[in-house]
Amino acid sequence: MPKPKMMIAGSTGCARGSLIDFPDYFGQEHGVRQDTKVPTEARDFAADAGEPAGAGDRAGVAVRGLGHAYGELTTIDGLDLEAPAHRVLGIVGPSGCGKSTLLELIAGLQAPTAGVIEVGGRAGAAERLAGCAFMPQRDLLLPWLPALDNAALALRNRGVRRAEARREAGRLFERFGLGGFERSAPAELSGGMRQRVAFLRTLVAGKPVLALDEPFASLDAITRAEMQAWLAGALAADPRTVILVTHDVEEALYLSDQVVVLSSRPARVVAELSAPGARNADRDAAVTDRGFIAARERAMAALHEGSR
To answer: What is the pTM of this model?
Structure first.
């Protein structure tokens, strides 16, 4: 039986013929084991990923008067957001308030009902898609491909030859704590390692904006904390504009420069919080700092208020 093709077509709302930078119609295996430790070398990620495409434009994200509905169901109403270039904007809100829909709208995977979304000053869906790399909630690694080919998939979708795509992705494996696992199948990787492969796939796409939809939701608490510290280091070394959707207030405050709290559906902004201070490399020290705890309490109060 022939293997499924690697070229994955875009989802609803994409221009005909567009390709997205992740395989969005494949499930993942269940029962994957979890990491209990992220290797030190993964935390020491250096800026070897190269200059992202469009980095010269320092692409930021602006959302003005955004509205979206599915038929008569309004999910987003009059939303205004801004993520300056090379900054991390965290978005938290109650379940079902439209956070993932907002991310898909920003990334050009859907068209808004009202308002304007700009990525690098460009508002067209195809242009937003060209400027954003989307990382969904699950890693969605293709089970028939080894880790290296999964990481190189975004490059292959853009027409890069297999050998060149492998070289580009492979040079980052050691930095991501994945050295020696290039030929491993996804089923042979731990949950944290799979997420690192998925993030590597997102990063090597070379897009200036990263749209991350609860990237660590499937991990246990210990691995999730390790991955948060790892991601903070990775973004410090290779800055991108990041829109991070998460249910975890602590995660949002630790990883983001600015955190927006959304209300229940239809989503509106109920609070905007700045990061408690300079991001501490020691995550445990950062999240137990008095200023961080106070910011977390303000965010939780805003969440409760917005859920009423």
So the answer is: 0.77
